[in-house]
Amino acid sequence: KIGHKGEDVVKEYLEKLGYIVEKPENPNQAVYDLIAEKDGIKWMIQVKTDANGDGNAHIPSEKELKKLREYASAKKMKGVWLLYYPEKREKYKYICADGRHKFQGVKPYY
User: Fold this and answer.
1) How confident is the prediction for the chain on average, in pLDDT?
2) Which residues, including other chains, have CB under 8 Å from residue 110's CB and lie 6 or more apart?
3) Are 54 and 83 in contact (CB under 8 A)?
4) Burial grade of 52 (CB within 10 A; 0-12, 13-18, 19 or more)
5) pLDDT tens digits, one per residue of 45-74
6) Which of 61, 48, 40, 60 is nearest to 104 (CA)?
7) Phi, psi of 10 (to 5 degrees)
8) Which 3-state string (H, E, C) describes 11-56?
9) Running DSSP on this structure, what letter comes out for residue 90?
10) For the chain, what percent of residues have pLDDT higher than 70?
11) CA–CA separation, 16 and 29 (whole Å)
């Protein structure tokens, strides 16, 4: 499945940036794809891969960002939507669920 491959690529990339990364115990029931920690900050990450190479990775709706933000906050984490573009020069972009935090090592989507 292309989504799982994207998650694995993102996991490896974040580990190279110095993040400690883990996958959920039961990925089919999780709201997130990865947990990453660096510099004392834990991130709950939803990964979306541009499967067609057309630059159209799924951009979250306000409702989706709110759900991720609330779930992450309840677990004392920050929520982030990470977009992976395998065919582009800049392969990784992020959208922070609360709009306030920077995800170190990845450029913002907006």
Assistant:
1) 88
2) 95
3) no
4) exposed
5) 999 888 887 877 888 888 988 999 999 999
6) 40
7) -65, -40
8) HHHHHHCCCEEECCCCHHHCCCCEEEEECCEEEEEEEEECCCCCCC
9) S
10) 96
11) 27
